[in-house]
Every structure is written in C-alpha cells, then in structure tokens.
Write a structure and sequence with these properties.
36% of the residues lie in helices and 16% in strands. It is of the alpha+beta class. Strand 3, helix 3 and strand 4 form a beta-alpha-beta unit. Bound molecules: tetrahydrodeoxyuridine.
C-alpha cells in the first residue's frame, strides 16, 4: 500500500472526535488509523471521574484494530476539537510503535512524520526476544 488518503483519514478522525467523552478536560480527540489491509479503524478519548484513568483516542483505535481482525498500521491522523492535527502522547507512541513500527506515518501540521522520528531508540518486542534467546 503506497498511497495514504490523508483527507479521508482526517475526516474519519474528526467524525469520531465528536463521540469523545471528555467532560473533565473538555478536550475531545479523535484518531483514525489506516491498516495494511485497507481498513480504517477509529478511536476517541474516554475520560473518567478518577482523572488518571483516562483512555486516549489512540488507545481506543488500537483496541479496534485488534477487535476487527488485527493487522499493522500504515498511517494515522489524530485531531483536536478544531480538526487540527495532534501528535500522540508518549504512552500512545509506545502503543503505535508496537502496532505500526518505525515506518508508520503520523499526520502533523508539517506533513507526515514516521514513528521512528516520534519515538527514536524505542523499546520494543525485539528487546524481549533478545533476553529470551539468552536463556
Ligand atoms: N489525549 C488523547 O486522546 N490523545 C493524545 O494523544 C493526547 C491527549 C486526550 C486525553 C485527555 O482526555 C485529553 O486529551 C486531554 O489531555
């Protein structure tokens, strides 16, 4: 899959942003990811009265990836309430790394960035495997 339809991905992110449950921060977020089989999966942030329990939009998107058949992310767009691109928080970068890898593209105001740029020298499954092979 070589071409990413960024406008379609942003539109899907804006649509799901309107379903966010963000009564505490009042900062709704929507995320839409293109999967390597052409599927688009989405997620919105879901907050909680226990503030620290918040689920980011990207968490929901990753859950939908697996719930609808798995695969690998090729690209993702994440938007705020104005539809402007948002870069994922640190925890979500780790989730995206596991499910998309270094070449996954992430929308930004400066154009697509790779996960390798967003999470350089990442910890990943290879680190677990390296230890497993020693024992
Ligand atoms: N949030 C996301 O959903 N994704 C991000 O990448 C950044 C932050 C949410 C969490 C919280 O509900 C709100 O934005 C304010 O931090």
């Amino acid at each position: 899959m070589s071409k990413v339809d960024w406008p379609a991905l942003r539109k899907a992110a804006v649509e799901v942003m309107h379903r966010a449950y963000a009564p505490y921060s009042k900062f709704p977020v929507g995320a839409a990811g293109l999967v390597d089989d052409g599927r688009v999966v989405v997620g919105c942030n879901v907050e909680n009265a226990a503030y620290g329990v918040v689920l980011c939009a990207e968490c929901g998107m990753v859950s939908q990836l697996h719930a609808t058949g798995g695969g690998r992310f090729v690209a993702m767009a994440c938007v705020d309430a104005d539809g402007h691109p948002l870069l994922p928080c640190g925890r979500c970068r780790q989730l995206l790394w596991e499910n998309g890898g270094p070449k996954m593209l992430v929308d930004s105001k400066d154009g697509p960035l790779t996960m390798a740029e967003l999470l350089p020298r990442a910890f990943g499954v290879e680190d677990l495997e390296a230890i497993a092979h020693e024992h």
